[in-house]
RNA sequence: GUCCCAGUAGCUCAGCUGGAUAGAGCAACAGCCUUCUAAGCUGUGGGUCGCAGGUUCGAAUCCUGCCUGGGACGCCA
C-alpha cells in the first residue's frame, strides 16, 4: 500500500488520541483531523490546524491547546522526528525520513501499476462524452471534451473505479434528415447540377466529399430515382461515412469507446414510451395546447418542457430521457455527462428527469467543458459547424501533434474558457510544457543507458538511506504523493491535477539533475541508490503520462 | 429579465475541505554547458486575488449585492 497515506493515517490517529487524553475534547466533539502538506518546507511534512478548530470547544487559546496536544502525543508511534508550534496555533510535524525509504522499492515493484489504488472500491461509473452529431468533422472544442473525458476515465480506472466510456449517437431526428438533404445537394452539385443547399444544411467540406464520392461510385443513378428512396439511402450513407470518420479521428487521438449507443435503438424496443409511462405514473405529465408536457418545475426547473410536439413528434429531450433511464437501469452508481458549455441550460431539465424516473439526483453529474477560443495571427476565429470553418481535430493533430494537444487541454480546468493559439501550438517551441515533461523522462532513459555502458548494475542492490540530499528528499516525497493525487483527481473529477503533478515531478527531476551527478564512479553505493531513484521517477512519469494519454519518449 | 461559467503578475492559467509570506509557465532582466541531453538549471523584478459588505481566530477560497466578459434561456438538436 501507499506508505505516505499510511504514515498520514497513523499520525491522524495519534493526534486524535492525544486530544482526548489531554481532555481537550470528547471523542464526539472531536472534528475530523485534517493534515495538510505545507507549501513551505520550513513548516514541516504535515501541518495540522486542529488546535484552532478546538479553540471554541476547549475554551483555550489555540497555542496552548497545541502545546497540550504535543505533550500528550506519542511521537515514536507516529514516526515523528520533530514537532513545532507555529503561527496562530499550527502544529508542524517533521517526519522521520525512514518513512520515505520504502517508496522506491514500492514503485519498482509496482511498476506500471504504481499510482493505482482501490479508492473507488470498484464503484461502477459511466462517462458519456464527445457524442457529436454525425453531421460533420470533430473540431477544436470537441477535442477538448474528448481529451477531458478520456483522461477522466483513465484516472477513474486507476483509482479503482469500474469505468465505462460511451458515445451517444444521435442517429435519429431532424439533424440526420438535414444531413440527407445536404448530401443530396452536394451529390447533385457533383453531377454538375445547380442545386442550392438546404436552409439548415451542413456546409462542411466533408459533405462535399460525400457528394463527390457518391457521384463517382454510382454516377447519376440517384438523380433519376424517386426522392424518398434517394434520401433514405443518402441518410444511411452519410451517417456511416460521418461516424466512420469520427471514430477514426478519435482513435487517432487515442480515444476509444467501450460502447457506441445508438439513439435509434431506443425506438426499437419501446424504451421511449416506457420512459414516458414512468413519468406518467409519477404524474409529471400533462397535455396543453395540443402538446405533451413534462412538469420539470416540480424539480426546480424554470419552466415545464414539451415532450411531444403538436405534430406528434418528440422533442430532443424525450429520447434523451429514455437514454438516461437506460443508462441508470444498467446499474451504474454514477453517470457522468461531458457537455459543451452551450448545453448547460439543459442540466436542470435532465436532472428533473432523473428524479422523476425515481433515481437519486446525485447519481447524475454533468461536467461542462467551457469554450475554446481559437486565435490565429493574433485574431480570434469563430468556430461554426454550419459554415465549416472550424479547425478540425484532424488538422490539429497533424499540425500540432497529439501529445501537445492532449496535454494542453488537460492542463486547464474544464470550467475555464481557454485560448488556443494556433501559431504558438504549431511552433513546437519550448513554450510547450509537454516537451518539458517528456524531456525529463528522456533524460532519465539516457542516464540509465549510460549507467549500463559505464558498468553500473541497473537492477542491482541499493540502499535508499543514502539518499539524503534535499533534492532527493523532495523527489521521494513527490513520488509518494502520486497515488493520492490520482485518487483525488478521480474523486473530484479534476484530471488536470495529474497534469499539474507530472509537471511538478518533472521540475524536481530537472532540478535534481542539475544539482547532483547520478553516475559517479567514485561513489558506487550512492550511484546505485540514485539509479534506483531515477528508475522510480521514470516509472512515475510514465504512469502519469499514460493517464494523460501522452507518450513518454526514451530520447528527444 | 432569469440561470451557468469566468474575473488572480504584462499575457495564459493553477490555487485541494477556508490556513501561515498568493504560485507556475511565457514575456523582461542577470548568471550557469572541457562533466549523465541547455527542449535544462539558478536568481531578480512584477499582485488593491473585479468592487463593496458579511460569516470567523483566519477569506483568493464560503454567503449577499453590484460591475465586466462569455454562454444559455425553442413545440431546434
- The CATH class name of the domain at 431-548 reads Mainly Alpha
Q: Can you give the helix content as a percent range?
A: 40-55%
Give the CATH H-level superfamily of the domain at 431-548: Isoleucyl-tRNA Synthetase, Domain 1
Strand order of the largest sheet: 7-6-5-11-12
Round the Cα radius of gyration to an integer and report it: 29 Å
Here the CATH topology of the domain at 431-548 equals Isoleucyl-tRNA Synthetase, Domain 1
Mean pLDDT: 91
Shape: globular
Uncertain segments are 384-388
Biggest sheet layout: 5 strands, parallel
Concise structural overview:
50% of the residues lie in helices and 13% in strands.
Q: What features would you describe in this structure?
A:
It contains 20 helices and 15 strands. The protein has 556 residues and is α/β, with parallel strands linked by helices. Among the domains are: 3-100, Arginyl tRNA synthetase N-terminal domain (Gyrase A, domain 2, 2-Layer Sandwich), CATH 3.30.1360.70; 174-252, no CATH class; 431-548, Isoleucyl-tRNA Synthetase, Domain 1 (Orthogonal Bundle). The strands form four sheets. It has a five-stranded parallel β-sheet, with helices on both faces. The protein binds one RNA strand of 77 nucleotides through helix 2, strand 9, strand 10, strand 15 and helix 17.
